[in-house]
Amino acid sequence: MRSGNEPLTARSPLRLRFWLSLWGLLWAAAGAAVFSLAGSPGWAAACGVLALLAAVDLAVVLHHIHQGPHYQPGPDVPPYEPPRNR
């Protein structure tokens, strides 16, 4: 439901989130590799978990990008009247 207080140009920054997730995935994977070679299993595991989270976020972002644009009402559509029975 629209309450009338949404920004007129609100959009999800999926492309920015894609690049940030990719950047995080690369750094976390590199960190896991370096720490495992250096003999620090705790830090390697922490970087591995971060790499896994970045990979999941990257998959979600790619799924949303491939879904395409969804209908969002433009500025010519008036906001809905808020319900008064609450």
Strand % is: under 5%
**Distance from first to last alpha carbon:** 14 Å
Radius of gyration, in Å, reads 20 Å
Count of individual beta strands: 0
Structural overview:
- The protein has 86 residues and is mainly alpha-helical.
- The protein contains two helices and no strands.
- Helix 1 runs antiparallel to helix 2.
- 8% of the residues are buried.
- The model has no long low-confidence stretch (mean pLDDT 82).
Summarize the structure.
With 86 residues, this protein is mostly helical. 60% of the residues lie in helices and 0% in strands.
Task: Give the SSE map.
Elements: H1 14-38, H2 41-67
Q: Which terms summarize this structure?
A:
86 residues, mainly alpha
